[in-house]
Amino acid sequence: MGDQNTLLGETHARHLLRRTGFGALKTDVQTFASLTRGAAADRLTSFKPAKFRPPGRDIWRRRVSWLKYMLRTRAPLQEKLVLFWHDHFATGNDKVQNHHWMADQNRLLRLYCKGNFKTFVKAINVDPAMMEYLDTFRNFKEQPNENYARELMELFTLGVTDLAGQPNYEQQDIVQIARAFSGWGWDWSRNRVRFNDWAHDYMSEYGSERGPKVIFRNHGGFGSSGRDFTQPNGEGPQEISQVVDIIFEHRDSDGKSTVARFITKKLLEYFAHPLPPYPDNATIIDRIIQRSAFDIEWDLRRLVREILVDDFFYETAGVPPYSASTPKSVVWPVDFVVTTLRLLRVRPRSDKWGNWYIEGGAYGNVTDYLADMGQILFEPPSVFGWDWEEGWINSATLLARYTFARDVAMARGNKAQHLRPHLLMNLNLTDPGDIVDAVTEALGIRQQLTAAERQALMNYLGGPLDLNDPGVREKKLHGLFALALQTPHVHLH
Amino acid sequence: MSLSRRDFLIRSGLVAGGLMANGLWSRALVRKAFADIGDRFLVSIFLDGGNDGLNTVVPVANGSFANFRTSYEILRRSGPGGLRLSETLLTPYAVAADPNTNTPLALHPGLEGLHRLYQLGKVAVVQGCGYPEYNLSHAVSRTIWETASRAAMGPGWLGRYLASRYGASDIPALSVGYWMAGELRQQTTSVLTSIRLSELEFPLDNWYPDDDPAKKVAFQAVYGEAQASSQPLLRFLGNSGQATLTATQAYPGLDDLYAADRASWLQQYNDLDSGTARRLREIAKVIYGVHQGVPDVGARHFALANGGYDTHANQGTVGTNQAHYELHREVGDALEAFYHDLDDMGVADKVLVMVWSEFSRRPQQNDNGTDHGSQGPVFLIGGKVNGGVYGNHPNISDSRVLNPGATWDDGNTKYSQDNSDPHRSTDFRDVYGAILKHWLQIPQTEILSSLLTPDVGDPNFYWTLPNFDFVHPGNGQPLFLP
Questions:
Q1: Å from B478 to nearest chain A CA?
Q2: Which runs of consecutive H residues, i.e. helices, occur in B305-406?
């Protein structure tokens, strides 16, 4: 069994750093290689939550400032988690139309990303961007709006069905929770969320007509009576938090915590790769929950830590020959871009209009490449978030990735930087094999290449090269970087 | 189990297995060997946001079914911002009466172009398409329509068909847009995604173009290795990259070919500049390319989306040129121009267009818009379509619809909305089945076993009576003419 005390070694250190950050620098790999899994996970998860709120006077500038922060942060795991939660509690500015609220939510995600998950959900309940995105601000007692109630259970906490495929709730539960969420609005004069008595569905007011609010009549281990969370008149604001308490008590058909399994599964898939089908996945998920006590304490830091020491996480660190037993995951566009910029030490230029661009590239802006790759920060395609894995890959998004690879390798302003010692240790390299090894090593894919792929890249170089010749460097060396960044290995991890 | 295309080619000795893997064989030879569906094309058009079907195919006047129109007008009340479409406005856009109630029906006046095609007998309106336990979430309902399954995500219904028929390096489908259309999604073959074919450009060297051939050779070798991998995701990426490279070499040229020949066609329809018209034109170019035997151009299945149908408010009525009217006009006119383009090419009989939306809207108007509802109409358009009205109009006279707040269970569907919605009259999977069986001509057993199997474990999503053999209520002929 996977162990806290297993020493990482280089391969696993590279894997761990790659998944919890943006690319693995050689120096970091060397440091982590001699740590145990437990010590490494502790080190990575012990960052102090940053109160960073992406600045900017419009959503485009805020997008760029978040990307810049990802590139320079010393706690990349925090940004990886914020990305995860942005996808999980997906909220799009196309509907919210308020970049201040979007930035506030981003800060909220950063503060809670490894905090208490139950408190996190309660905070999201009253997050203005979320309340606008899922219509909590348009939920009145006469016309309850089911939008947030549905997603709170379906996407944020329970999932439609449990691991065994049994439904977790019914439409009736959605209606009841919508009633509990009625009455919330935005107070423009004081710039904060407020609860409006007049719009809330109080039990006493409608009494027998609407009846008490009861959820999980048939689910959640509460027996046939369900749970009533109706508050006496005057305490309506509490219901929004009581709903979360009840949801967190929900049990799967085999008695395990539904919320704990749902979140653990998703985080596992995010950091590692898709899980095997039920019941094997339950085995993996439950042992991590058990070790982290996530179903009791809801401590995300402990949960993430236990994921990062588990055998399942390290199964993905395999080396060739690939087989079905070394599963992989598609690198997210933001991850690909930030990792590439970081490893190649390319710094895009900023201009006064808020652009952050690669000089000599096909586009004006890094965020434009990302849009074509299918990921616009603060604009997930829907409340479902982005499509992971194969969903990232199609000919349009691949061409965007290939174009970024070319532009970043050939960026006019950054040419000389490719030849820095940290990338190619020795300018006197002449052998094509040595050059290919140095470049793929710098990009962290040397171990993934098959002999035939290595040979193909060597063939591209032709024969021995004099890297001190600027013409050779510009043409063949930059071409090699572009090709290497286009290989499937860079886009899978 | 049918042979995959790859197996078929290998077994029939047309290509050696090793050559298949690195994608460097002659594709023209492959295509010739596998003209299995003939020259038949399918275009899926998604109206994104829940098109208000009740204002798309509208009852014109009282038919034999008493109070039909009256109750309709109560629900779609007139007044400022009202959705009421008056008899005068609707009369010019009349289509066949509802087969069940004999109520005269008309298309929304914005659908002028589509109505002209209807008059040519090229449009089938399949009314009341939905599914049990309908879901009011855009994303969930859309996924259900895309996959014909209750699963949250997974291959699309056409994607499963493509995966069963085509090999890894083929490009059997084109998704016109920034995203892969869900109905085409799958994990084996490659679907091209592009907004404009002429911009499908492989990023090569801006400064040293003479170095490009060497780069391409290396790229193909690396991706060929990935294609041969036993790791599924690596193989998928290998296939997608290889197909992308192929497409960038083949598809951009279609622009000039189409433009040059178009000049000589008999009918010259206006070049519409709407997004939908432009996207349909990209499809017309590919169909033309396939028809002309352009090497490496082989897509036969297409998908695009037209967004903006989430008209919770300001839907507008006719004459006000507001949201719904404009959306309909864009789609209707684009469909008309597309059909005539195909007709000029002589391929109108080989193309089938299906227009659908994730759900329709509730009968009750809210303010001056509509909320999410249940079933809606599907349009089938093509030279071989037996034009007319199929299926029944949503029964908006039903007392349960007129009395929001009622809940009931008819043994087939549980109704628990505060605003009751009319019952579906057609299962949308029957429409897919009809297309698979009669248009793409795959055996019914295969349709049921591999494509549209109802989900196991969800008793509320059962699918009772597959009916793939739609018969025209007027002339008794099948939906697709021979």
A1: 37
A2: 323-345, 399-402
